[in-house]
Amino acid sequence: MTLIKEGDELLLYMDKRRTYKVRVEQDKQFHTHKGFIKLGDLIGKPYGITVTSSLGISFYALKPLIRDRVLKTDRRTQVLYPKDIGYILFQLGIASGSRVVEAGTGSAALTMALAEAVRPEGMIYTYEINEKHQKTARGNIEKSGLMPYVEMKLGDITQGIPEKDVDAVILDMATPWLVVPHAWDSLAGSGVFLSFSPTIEQVMKTVDVLNEHPFIEIETVELMLREITVAHNKTRPKTQMIGHSGYLTTARKVVELLE
Amino acid sequence: MTLIKEGDELLLYMDKRRTYKVRVEQDKQFHTHKGFIKLGDLIGKPYGITVTSSLGISFYALKPLIRDRVLKTDRRTQVLYPKDIGYILFQLGIASGSRVVEAGTGSAALTMALAEAVRPEGMIYTYEINEKHQKTARGNIEKSGLMPYVEMKLGDITQGIPEKDVDAVILDMATPWLVVPHAWDSLAGSGVFLSFSPTIEQVMKTVDVLNEHPFIEIETVELMLREITVAHNKTRPKTQMIGHSGYLTTARKVVELLE
Amino acid sequence: MTLIKEGDELLLYMDKRRTYKVRVEQDKQFHTHKGFIKLGDLIGKPYGITVTSSLGISFYALKPLIRDRVLKTDRRTQVLYPKDIGYILFQLGIASGSRVVEAGTGSAALTMALAEAVRPEGMIYTYEINEKHQKTARGNIEKSGLMPYVEMKLGDITQGIPEKDVDAVILDMATPWLVVPHAWDSLAGSGVFLSFSPTIEQVMKTVDVLNEHPFIEIETVELMLREITVAHNKTRPKTQMIGHSGYLTTARKVVELLE
Amino acid sequence: MTLIKEGDELLLYMDKRRTYKVRVEQDKQFHTHKGFIKLGDLIGKPYGITVTSSLGISFYALKPLIRDRVLKTDRRTQVLYPKDIGYILFQLGIASGSRVVEAGTGSAALTMALAEAVRPEGMIYTYEINEKHQKTARGNIEKSGLMPYVEMKLGDITQGIPEKDVDAVILDMATPWLVVPHAWDSLAGSGVFLSFSPTIEQVMKTVDVLNEHPFIEIETVELMLREITVAHNKTRPKTQMIGHSGYLTTARKVVELLE
């Protein structure tokens, strides 16, 4: 059984809306408006354990998953939802050992999900043009412990991609169509291109350029997620729903026969 | 650059509807109704390369991704779609090193996706009650090369789960509610339970039992995927759509305070 | 051309979020925080005309449609959306001359839509158990001028429906299944039953009772409406969406052969 | 109670997939592969009654609703679904007495729904450029008895609309943007424009032209309808669904201030 040890990051869960990411230290107290928690008391306990604050409120000590990190990530540049990230990871076909180019880094929510998917043997090359965003992203990745699997690059990916023979290129940026030719150069044969775009005009332009290059299986989809309330005599989809985050366009590089 | 070598499995892609999974052998010919292909000629070539059949038809030699395997899997027991599998992998929070219990194995489509996600250091324990299904599943997993990460179990998971301290339990079976108590026992603290069910009655029963055990973050969602046709003056969602595959119910194990 | 005349109700439209329903009187001023409007000046002008407030802000004088009234109706008891009302009217198959039973009246949003559909020769019999709701509803209907086509009934429709041979019965209430036997008695042969219910348990119970009576074409659907932003390089579905209002269950009365 | 009389059109319902529209005549037999029915026997019976064929199969004698006519209409040019028609009727705000311009007539499915909504005092002016379509449409409308409320026009609506001061203009045609200026001329102040278009490019062009004219409340939506199977332990949305029929763009004419 994995036990909580000093230095671990964990998620203190009070209720669905109130969760707190903390690092466990022997003599540290974590203060909430519901009393404080002696973090040292958690050392040696199993994950999932209940801990009571000085005011008698119960918290659960959860092991942070990547989806917790994504949701807790600085959201200023965040538009991707779990429904999209899950689909992206699966469509990219990446796993331990994969080498992936990403742009832009943003808050690194997707970067961390990609790094978790390719560790311990793969690498994410993530491009960001905005230095301030990159700094925020670096902090997020460092806290997650995933930095060994990430190479952060400050620069404009529309100018070219030096990495070659990569397994996948994933774009969440304003002008993905400008990257398509570089993505083809960078990808290994049979590698996967994926672009996430909120507007249909972005999709149209990207698909136009994809069609001009040796890509096959060019497809665009959108995902809708509906939450369901399940309770006796009250079972029903929730009234509010996210109607749109973005379109997901995928393609696969081929190499035309030259004889 | 990874080159095609003898013994590799690859996907011969003619068009979206006609793709063929083949194993490369020096002196083997692959016959289609569009002529035959000398597979030996592909050895030493890069993935993604075009190959021409004896009747002059072009095929692309793609590296099979897990999503290709899922789609190519024997579909007799298959109900999961890529939209669901991507979401499942992300919600489960699994990665290299994770230990996961699955039931039922079915055709092993999800088993392979899980194994790909946890390799090289994790393990999938997959339960199937139907011996014939298990045999089909074994064939699929063996071809994928993922068998080192899978332990196949023939038996009824509603009778108990001997594996303990696992990171996740994922159920795609008729009576998931009967497994909930065993899933709680089997999961490590903070571990994730996920059940995929086509009907709302299954969801209601499963959530009822989840509520009777120390689980938090009990949530049910459904995912809808719409394909978009992108073409000049013809851009629009496709007319036909899959309206429903199943509901996805997740929860997280906690350990109540005992003092 | 229909011109605005004294006594007309009209809709002063400033922008999408700010519209005001007013009655035109010769010497009345309508005050907004953007200045006042002399309503008498509108008499003899065509609908759709621009009118400028004392502070120089433009308003449009629109002719109120039923959908304006529905949206402007007191929303305390309102759960129906235009997407649902349009579908209800079409599925009920009602038109001028139809006789329709409705319960509950609520704020009369649907009542007014029904009355508008059956005028000048039909009649809506609308049941409400809550006297306060009925009073609010009466005010709404009177302002709309549709009272000649509505008979308001204070009482519990689960106790029976005295009207016979009606063309349609439409229910938006907590326990529609208790009304199904009375609806069958009340409907003309071939008449339409429709129930709007937020929860799936309500639907299950209602369909159970429908199945026990001579009804055919028993069907349940749900409608989702997505708004699309259309603007240069910004075309996309809106982020926020109503994910669920209610399920719509329809059926048609038949008379079993008795020989 | 309305009884079936000679000359009535009725719908013989065998099951969901097998319904037949017939005209009642004293000495006519209606032949199906399940035996024949003596239609004269139905005269004087109430609607909804069961009738048994010569082979002992039960049929129900239903009164045809507009939605039955829409579904039974020649579908060669049909793209509108009940979900869209209901929404269109409600958004147009039409009722008895309304005058409406429609193009194209197509098979007249929507024409009949419009006519039913505006009778007994309104009029539908429906434009069709294809003489063969118009002929089919005429047959459909005549059988429905709604011809008194329809004026059929053979011609190209992009060349202008002679009708003035109409309450609504509804377009289901390839190039709605070419009609927008004529629609503005034709509409009464405050009147409603609505266009149904399958592709987003049509929507973009139409909204562009709407924005150049005095229209307000320019809005585009799409409607998705999901059928739900309701049965003990099998309750769930159906697997197959119509993912897209078309976008619905509405606007309302205003008259800019001229002082």
Task: Please characterize this protein's 3D structure.
With 259 residues, chain A is α/β, with parallel strands linked by helices. The first copy, chain A, folds into 2 domains: 9-62, Vcp-like ATPase, Chain A, domain 2, CATH 3.10.330; 67-253, Rossmann fold, CATH 3.40.50. Chain A is 24% helix and 34% strand. In chain A, the strands form 3 sheets. Chain A has an 8-stranded mixed beta sheet with strand order 9-8-7-10-11-15-12-13, sandwiched between helices. A 4-stranded antiparallel beta sheet of chain A has the order 2-1-6-5, with no helix packed on it. In chain A, α1 (66-72) packs antiparallel against α3. The first copy, chain A, is globular, with a radius of gyration of 21 Å. Chains in contact: A-B, A-C, B-D, C-D. At the A-B interface, β5, β6, α1, α2 and α3 of A face β5, β6, α1, α2 and α3 of B. β14 (240-242) of chain B pairs antiparallel with β14 (240-242) of chain D, so a sheet runs across the interface.
Largest interface, chains and sizes: C-D, 71 and 72 residues
Q: Rg of chain A, please?
A: 21 Å
Write the CATH homologous superfamily of the largest domain in chain A: Vaccinia Virus protein VP39
What is the count of β-strands of chain A?
A: 15
What is the mean pLDDT of chain A? 94
Give the quaternary arrangement of the chains.
Answer: homotetramer
The CATH top-level class label of the largest domain in chain A: Alpha Beta
Task: Indicate the CATH topology of the largest domain in chain A.
Answer: Rossmann fold
Number of helices of chain A: 6
Give the structural class of chain A: alpha/beta
How many separate structural domains of chain A? 2
Percentage of β-strand residues of chain A: 25-35%
Distance between the termini of chain A: 59 Å
* Overall form of chain A: globular
The major sheet of chain A is characterized as: 8 strands, mixed
Low-confidence stretches of chain A: none
Q: Please write the string of helix (H) and strand (E) elements of chain A.
A: EEEEEEHHEHEHEEHEHEEEE
Percent helix of chain A: 10-25%
Give the spatial strand order of the biggest sheet of chain A: 9-8-7-10-11-15-12-13
Write the CATH architecture name of the largest domain in chain A.
Answer: 3-Layer(aba) Sandwich
